[in-house]
Amino acid sequence: MDNCSANQTTCELDNIELKFLPPNTTARLQPLDRSIKSFKVGYRRRLLDRLLINLRVGTELKVDQLGAIHMMTGVWNSVKQSVANCFRKADFVTAELFGSLRRRRRRRIRHGRHVSRAVVPFPGCCSSQTVCRRLRER
């Protein structure tokens, strides 16, 4: 079991023996752990950015399921590289395959088939053009 305070138990178990990992080994033994944390931090950052933009403009932030999915899509697109690195370090993906994926992505970017989705407006949030227009009006 992971060594965290929620997993500590004082029960006497006759038929079960619990073994805990040493402290600070989760990230080394579970390579996706860092990417999961990175994803969560990225989502919180996008949510906070949207909140700050809406506060400046003077509108209430409303996040529905579709809006959350749009934000998660943007975060996932930015986390993909660290996820790929985790799989490569865990030897799930060979260096050859990893290199060919990089080359393929570079070719797509060079030929204009790669579309950046940095900011995706969603219901309840102003578009970037609306934000810029309202800030200029002030």
UniProtKB/TrEMBL annotation:
GO terms for molecular function: nucleic acid binding. It comes from the Eukaryota. InterPro entries: DDE_SF_endonuclease_dom (IPR004875). This is DDE-1 domain-containing protein. It comes from Haemaphysalis longicornis (Bush tick). Residues 8-82 form the DDE-1 domain.
